[in-house]
UniProtKB/TrEMBL annotation:
One of its GO terms (molecular function) is methyltransferase activity. PANTHER family: TRANS-ACONITATE 2-METHYLTRANSFERASE-RELATED. Pfam families: Methyltransf_23. GO terms for biological process: methylation. This is Methyltransferase domain-containing protein. The lineage of its organism: Bacteria, Pseudomonadati, Pseudomonadota, Gammaproteobacteria, Alteromonadales. InterPro entries: SAM-dependent_MTases_sf. It comes from Shewanella oncorhynchi. Keywords: Methyltransferase, Transferase. It comes from the Bacteria.
Length: 397
């Protein structure tokens, strides 16, 4: 489907598109476009809202089996910082908080431990709702940001890495403002990936699940248009896989930031430069392991998901190698078709000496590699695609 600009509603101009072999959804044309009026970048063409909801509810997994459902060190650090940042910006933590896109409930559990007495999550993922209750005793509304309803008013609303996923993020921000339209000052904290210079962006930054892209300028503008006034901003470039920006805003009108200025040409050039960088990156990673990969009897891809999709879309892998299967430890993905492969439970595969597994994941490569020692004990090679230091490949067995 073709999308209009998520910020101002104008028609968008496509910069690049390619065919993506999406898990459970088939081969789809995915592209990235710019708004000629306000300069905002969005995914267009993209899949429909219903198709994306199918992906989230039945395929998307945000806990890594190598951590046994525990949060990562970076997640612990980031949530600790969010609590401190909000407390400093307001002066104290509010007594009530709702998080839209509450995932496994860890974030809300930490806000509760820090002194927030009433917490509530909103989460579309069935598995995540169950995890939040089982791991942290967090109550969640099982629904999307677009569909959920509540009669409660919350002093603080949290949206960390949510707006970039929404088809109509402005509607959700206005919905939040309506929830907080009661007497007294209320606050919202929003955190999203930051679309910075292409040199600062990681592989896979323009991804399937992220359909809106924010700069500091258009994020502040989006909050203003919804009826909020930004009071504090934090940006990080090196501490996470991709740059991030967090904004704390108030329902009380204030004038801390200059008027919005659209950088259309700057953002267009960022898209063009990034596209070339992305293709060069993925092909370069494959080129480093291709000779070794071709020596094995059978090749399996580890990870039914977006990184496998990007590997296929951005390289000539299928022209040089026969891929014999796709596997993943997430039971949600077993039986899902991606391209020509059906994802299998790795325990049910008849592994043989001479087999190899190529790990497509960028974000979780190290954790997955460490969790696959049982395969290496069987004589199966496990190859990192993204690792700069490939010595662990040679010492894997």
């Amino acid at each position: 489907m073709i999308r209009n600009c998520f910020l101002c509603g104008a028609d968008t101009e496509n910069i690049f598109s390619s065919d993506w072999v999406l898990p459970g959804l088939g081969t789809t044309k995915i592209g990235f476009s710019i708004c000629p009026d306000c300069g905002s970048v969005s995914q267009s063409p993209s899949v429909s809202f219903d198709e994306m909801m199918t992906f989230y509810s039945s395929i998307a997994v945000y806990t890594n089996p190598g951590r046994k459902e525990r949060p990562s060190e970076s997640k612990i650090r980031d949530v600790d910082e969010q609590i401190r940042f909000i407390k400093r910006g307001i002066g104290e933590l509010p007594k009530s908080a709702m998080q839209i896109g509450s995932s496994d409930g860890y974030t809300l559990s930490q806000f509760r431990d820090a002194g927030v007495t009433r917490v509530l999550g909103v989460e579309p993922g069935t598995a995540s709702v169950s995890l939040a209750n089982r791991l942290y005793n967090i109550d969640c509304i099982h629904g999307s940001a677009e569909s959920f309803e509540t009669e409660e008013s919350f002093e603080l609303i949290i949206l960390t890495h949510v707006l970039e996923h929404l088809y109509h993020p402005q509607n959700t921000l206005k919905k939040c403002r309506k929830i907080q339209d009661s007497e007294g000052e209320k606050f919202i904290y929003v955190e999203v990936p930051l679309m910075a210079n292409h040199t600062s962006l990681c592989p896979g930054f323009f991804s399937f699940e992220h359909i809106n892209y924010y700069t500091k300028e258009n994020l502040i503008q989006s909050l203003r248009l919804a009826g909020y006034s930004p009071i504090s901003v934090v940006e990080h470039f090196n501490s996470n896989l991709s740059p991030i920006i967090g904004v704390l805003a108030s329902t009380k009108e204030q004038h801390h930031y200059v008027d919005f200025h659209a950088d259309v040409e700057v953002n267009r050039q960022r898209l063009i430069n990034y596209r070339q960088k992305e293709v060069n990156y993925w092909q370069g990673c494959l080129d480093k392991v291709l000779d070794k990969l071709q020596q094995y009897k059978r090749i399996f891809l580890w990870g039914a998901g977006i990184h496998t999709c990007q590997l296929v879309a951005n390289t000539n892998l299928l022209q040089h190698c026969q891929i014999d299967g796709l596997t993943d430890t997430s039971s949600l993905k077993w039986g899902i078709k991606q391209g020509e492969w059906i994802c299998q439970d790795p325990v049910n595969i008849n592994w043989q000496e001479g087999d190899t597994v190529l790990i497509s994941s960028y974000a979780s490569e190290k954790e997955i590699f460490n969790a696959l020692s049982w395969l290496r004990d069987k004589g199966v090679e496990t190859l990192k695609l993204h690792s700069i230091d490939n010595k662990e490949h040679a010492n894997a067995k």
